[in-house]
Amino acid sequence: MTQNPFAVPKEIREITEKNIEQAQAAFGQFSDAMTQAISMWTEAVPENNLTSGFAMVQERAMHYAKENAEAGLGLATDIAKAKDVQAILALQTSFAQKQMQAYAQQTQELGLLLSQAGKAAADQMKPKT
Fold first, then answer.
1. 62: nearest Cα among 110, 26, 22, 100
2. Helices 49-81 and 10-44, axial angle in degrees (round to 10)
């Protein structure tokens, strides 16, 4: 029986999986803390047309940041389970393609939200006649 020189040893995969679980738990705690901090900040600022538009942008950006981080952690989990380099490369290729599509969609939506928030802010600042 010949061994695959590109195989990832089972012990390495197990250690990596445990490390990823710890990273996911730490990210969850960090994410919760950020959500609480942003919530406290937005509650402290009086709501009006100006702040509500930018609050929507901020909420969407945080949502995307969480999605993207979770996708990266998901990739790390999948890579940790990969049995060889070829599987790792396939996972990375698929991940890169999916993330590029996600980034394009996220950028488009954030741009639209920023444009709407900016227009609402400009409209609010116009002198009333």
1. 110
2. 170
- Paired with 84 in beta bridges are 7
Q: Tens digits of per-residue pLDDT, 36-50?
A: 887 787 777 777 666
Lowest-confidence segment of 6-15, 42-51, 87-96 by average pLDDT: 42-51
For residue 22, how far is the Cα from the chain centroid?
18
**What's the pLDDT tens digit per position in 93-105?**
999 999 999 999 9
Annotate 31-58 with DSSP letters as a single string.
Answer: HHHHHHHHHHHHHHSPP-HHHHHHHHHH
Distance (Å, rounded) from C-alpha 79 to C-alpha 126? 54
Cα distances (angstroms) measured from residue 20 to each of 31, 69, 87: 16, 12, 18
Confidence (pTM):
0.73
Question: Distance between CA 56 and CA 62 in Å, rounded?
Answer: 10
Rounded Cα gap, residues 96 and 68, in angstroms: 11
